[in-house]
Amino acid sequence: MIKVLYFAGLREALGTAAEEVSPPLDLLDVGALRAHLAARGGDWEKLLTTKNLRFAVNQDMARADTPVHDGDEVAFFPPVTGG
Amino acid sequence: MNDQQLLRYSRHILLDPIGIEGQERFLAARALVIGAGGLGSPAALYLAAAGVGTLALADGDTVDLTNLQRQILHTEASVGRPKAESGRDALQRLNPETRVEVIARRLEGADLEAEVAKADVVLDCCDNFATRHAVNRACVKLGKPLVSGAAVRFDGQISVFDTRQPGAPCYHCLFPEGEDVEEVRCATMGVFAPLTGIIGTLQAAEALKLLAGCGQTLGGRLLLLDALTMEWRTVRLQKDPGCPVCGSR
Ligand SMILES: [Zn+2]
């Protein structure tokens, strides 16, 4: 299982802050995980369309080609402004 | 420090990582607080209470009634007044020893750079991405530590970008400019009042640590807060070697 966390506008749009995702066997990296989740359709497509969306794997800043393994924690977070 | 100051600041002086030396650094320091709103209010109040010698408080807006739910520098009597002036009055009431410079305009361009150049630490408490990027560029260029906070709805983010440290990322390394991020503005979005207090207070803490040179700052780490669950997450950041703002440094 992969623990997936959503922050800020994404958390609000998806209505969830965290979930456990059972990844398909061929899922290799963050980009593939994002596409897998976005394929749910509707608001989940925001994973692909949110500008400047950033990812972290096990609390390290990551890129779309960062590998993801069973047991990892993946966080998706957009920038926040507002003061 | 005179006897009155030794007494007034004794609870900081008693802390070994700060001590008399650290307190003297606060008294001699100049902090630039950009934005006198939800984040800038608690940040500036704590810096003034802690005895920071000079606070430059920059905000081009005036106080309106919807600000009062969270912007604790201002009162009903401040409605319609420039935030920087209203903020100065509150800070002077709290600590008459702190010199407050009112910058009642939006800082940009050479004006922004001149203010950043004079500061020992810069606190970004603003509400828009354009200013965040401009402040970041000025801080990288002039080698000033930047304490960057953001808060909207129930979501907070805070980090320190101190590009004086080798290998340290800047704000642009984290969130590159030019991807046309949709503005999520307090003007139209809700903001949970104490969230701005939490993040703004952390900004004051990081600024004081930078001034005293104690502890480990949030340099290279971004904290994400979900105030609905009150869960914090840390993300370790990396410098982007190709960053157009800090890449050549
Ligand atoms: Zn950079």
TrEMBL record, chain A:
Which Gene Ontology BP terms does the record give? Mo-molybdopterin cofactor biosynthetic process
The keyword Nucleotide-binding is assigned to this record: yes
Give Gene Ontology CC terms: molybdopterin adenylyltransferase complex
Q: Which GO terms describe its molecular function?
A: nucleotide binding
Query: Is Nucleotide-binding set as a keyword in this record?
Result: yes
Q: Which family does it belong to?
A: Belongs to the MoaD family.
Q: Under what name is this protein listed?
A: Molybdopterin synthase sulfur carrier subunit
What organism does the record attribute this protein to? Azospira oryzae (strain ATCC BAA-33 / DSM 13638 / PS)
Q: What is the lineage of its organism?
A: Bacteria, Pseudomonadati, Pseudomonadota, Betaproteobacteria, Rhodocyclales
Automatic annotation (TrEMBL), chain B:
The record, for InterPro entries, names: ThiF/MoeB/HesA, ThiF_NAD_FAD-bd, Ubiquitin-activating_enz
Q: Which UniProt keywords apply?
A: Nucleotidyltransferase, Transferase
CDD domains recorded: ThiF_MoeB_HesA_family (cd00757)
Q: Where is the THIF-type NAD/FAD binding fold domain?
A: 9-245
Domain of life of the organism encoding this protein: Bacteria
Q: Does the keyword Mitochondrion apply?
A: no
One Pfam family from the UniProt entry? ThiF
Give the molecular function GO annotations: nucleotidyltransferase activity
Q: Quote the PANTHER family the UniProt record gives.
A: ADENYLYLTRANSFERASE AND SULFURTRANSFERASE MOCS3, UBIQUITIN-ACTIVATING ENZYME E1
Any idea what this protein is called? Answer: Adenylyltransferase/sulfurtransferase
